[in-house]
Amino acid sequence: MTLTSHGKGFLSRSISAEKPATSAARIAAKRRVELSGLRARWLSVFQKPAPAHLTRHLLFAVIAYRLQADRFGDLDHATRQVLDRTVAKETGPAMSARLASFDKKRTELTPGTVLVREWDRRSQRVMVMADGFAWNGQTYDSLSKVAFAITGTKWNGPRFFGLRDKGDRSTVEAQS
């Protein structure tokens, strides 16, 4: 899907088989479109007038997101469910647990995934296997053991490979 400028800020949408980089460049070029052109574009994309309070920047961002989602795919079902529950104002421990569970699912590693980490100016590549993690011709049963083999010091394996932040204890706990 591309945006085409027709002068005076008017844009039209057409479907094409362009590459993501080309699509991004075309959307970026539309940043110069006038506010009236963005409002007209909003009407054609969403079939209703743009909210009066939205600034030019927000109009552009929402239109660009919608066009990219139409062209390359929108949020997956699980993400939509989490957002729908958030909108429904599910709060407190129930929402926290649901978000933690969602985050955990996103960081589960499937066999065949290759993790790359630079250590001591060398690129370290670890392949996720069904029965552990392969590095330098050996199989380890945890990422922490791989991190120890690489560094010689104890590390939280998922943290070492960038799978979670320092303070986050809710994800990938089973693998360390």
Structural key phrases:
single chain, 176 residues, alpha+beta, 2 domains, four-stranded antiparallel β-sheet, two-stranded antiparallel sheet, 7 helices, 16% strand, disordered N terminus, disordered C terminus
Structure description:
The chain contains 7 helices and 6 strands; from the N terminus they run ββαααααββββαα. It folds into 2 domains: 2-72, no CATH class; 114-175, no CATH class. The strands form 2 sheets. It has a 4-stranded antiparallel beta sheet, covered by helices on one side. The radius of gyration is 23 Å and the shape is elongated. It has 176 residues and is an alpha+beta fold.
Give a short overview.
With 176 residues, the protein is α+β, with helices and mostly antiparallel strands. The chain has two domains: 2-72, no CATH class; 114-175, no CATH class.
Radius of gyration: 23 Å
Secondary-structure element string: EEHHHHHEEEEHH
What fraction, in percent, of the residue positions are helical?
40-55%
End-to-end separation: 43 Å
Mean pLDDT: 76
Shape: elongated
SS content category? alpha+beta
